[in-house]
Design brief:
Elements (H helix, E strand, L loop, with lengths): L2 E2 L2 E2 L2 E2 L2 E2 L15 H11 L21 H8 L1
Antiparallel strand pairs: 1-4, 2-3
Length: 72
């Protein structure tokens, strides 16, 4: 992972990771085929987003305890 798009006042903002370095993110077995499919659909664009939310809306994929639980 090299970029993130967190919610910000007025919508989403694109920024680098906290440490300014790329990092590996573990992918749980249950969604590996979905992630592989999204990578293939992005084609040669290495900067393409794997998952995007609806335009002009905040997208909350993880909140509070659910996020901590999903990360292990």
């Amino acid at each position: 992972m090299q970029r993130q798009t967190p919610p910000a006042p007025g919508g989403l903002t694109d920024k680098g990771t906290k440490g300014k370095r790329a990092r590996k993110v573990p992918i749980v077995e249950e969604i590996r085929s979905l992630v592989a499919q999204r990578i293939l659909s992005a084609g040669p664009d290495l900067d393409a987003r794997l998952f995007t939310g609806p335009p002009a809306r905040r997208t909350h994929l993880h909140r509070g305890p659910a996020r901590r639980h999903s990360l292990g």
